[in-house]
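Minutes, project huddle
Topic: does the predicted pose make sense with zinc ion bound?
PN asked that the exact inputs be recorded in the minutes so nobody has to dig through chat later. Recorded below.
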Amino acid sequence: MREFIESLPKAELHLHIEGALEPELMFELARRNAIPLRHPSVEALRAAYRFTDLQSFLDIYYEAAAVLQTREDFADMAMAYFRKAASQGVKHAEIFFDPQTHTSRGISYETVIRGLEEARRVAKAELGMTSALILCFLRHLSEDDAMETLAGALHFRDAITGVGLDSSERGHPPSKFARVFERARAEGLIPVAHAGEEGPPEYIREALDILKVRRIDHGVRCIEDPDLLKRLVDEQIPLTVCPLSNVKLRVFDTLRDHNLKQLLDLGVKVTINSDDPAYFGGYIGENYLSSAEALGLTKEELTTIAKNSIDASFDL
Ligand code: ADE
Ligand code: ZN
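Predicted holo structure (C-alpha cells), as shared on screen:
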C-alpha cells in the first residue's frame, strides 16, 4: 500500500512550513545562530511533543521558530520539506507561512520570503516540484496587525498566491478579519482559512460567506451541521483534512474515530495533508497510509482523494 500511495500524483494543500522544522535541523540552526534551546537533546524535545489541544501545540511551535534567523535557515527548512514530500509523490505544494511569527522577532519579510523563494526555485529545478506560498494571518492577534502584515507583504506581491488564517481558533472567528481579507482579495490574493478544526460549524460559514474562501482548512466539524454539509457537497468546496494532526491535537480520540471516510462517502471534496509533519508524526505519505489502514480506504478512494488535491490546487 505504501508504494501505491507514493506512486499517486498528489498535491499538498495544508502544510505550515514552520511545522516542517524537524528537531535535528532545529538543533543545527540553534547552534549555527547561537540560540539557546530549553530541551537538552533532540530526544528530549521529541518527548515534549505530547499535546492536549491546539493551544498546547502552538505554544511549543511558536517558541521553536526562534532558531530561524537567516534567509539560508528558511531555505534549508523548506528544502528539507520539498525533498521529503517529493519522495512521497507530492508534485505540487501550497505552503503556509506565518510572517508575524518572524517579523515580531525582528526578522524581515525579505529574509523569510527570499529564503522560501530560493527553496522553491531549487525544488522546481532539482525535483520538478511546483509550489506556491500562502501568507497566513495569526488570528489570536488583531485585525490591525494583520492589515499591517498584508501591507508589508504587498512589497513582495509576486511571491504570494493566497492568504490564510491560522493559530488559536476558539474565540477568534473569521468575521474578525473581514476587512483584511477584503483588501487581500482586491489585490488578487486567493483566500483560504482554518475553520472547524476546534471551532464550531458557524466559523466555516463565516469563512465562506464573509472571507469568501475557496477552500476550508480542516473543516471536520462541518459534520455537526447538515445544511452546511449539504452546501459543501453542492458547491464542491474542498476541505484540506489533516488526519494525524487531528489525533495529536485531540480533535478525534483515534484515527479510527476520524470522520474523513464519512465525509468522502457523503460527497465532500476531501484531501489529505500533513499540517505540521515534524510535530505530528508523519508527512503526507504517512497521513494517507495511516488513514487507509484505520478507516479501510480502498485504492480507488485514495485515488479520488489524490485527484481532489490536484483539482483543488490554485497554482498548477
Ligand atoms: N498553525 C500551525 N498548525 C496549525 C493548526 N493545526 N491549526 C491552527 N493553526 C496552526
Ligand atoms: Zn494548519
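Observations noted during the meeting:
- The chain has 16 helices and eight strands.
- The CA atoms of residues 212 and 254 lie 32 Å apart.
No decisions taken; revisit at the next huddle.
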